[in-house]
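Sequence only, no structure available. Ideas?
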Amino acid sequence: MIEQTVLEQLLTFRRERDWEQFHNPKDVAISLSIEAAELLEWFQWRNPDEIREMLNSDKREQLEDEIADVAVYLSYLCHDLGIDLNQVVKNKMAKNAAKYPKDRVKGRADKYNEYS
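Reply:
I predicted one. Tokens follow.
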């Protein structure tokens, strides 16, 4: 999902600061979760109109920064564990297609084990 050149920039950035020593999979996964929570904070307690206003204001950059933080940690985690993000997303989509056949779930928000 992230371009190879961007991934290389991330890895160089980390290596130049000698941060690999801190980036074991557990701690990177924790950091990913923390950044995802910070992303959620951007939306917390806001209605759709407020969110739309914020998207069209200088606060949009804060959202973009949180999204970037999530992407950075996910990229590190996939790289460090030898996971091809594009491939695992394709694999998951195939599983989801089997779980949620469009003729049975279109327009419904039920979980796969709740629809008849």
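Residues 60-81 form the longest helix (22 residues).
Hope that gets you unstuck.
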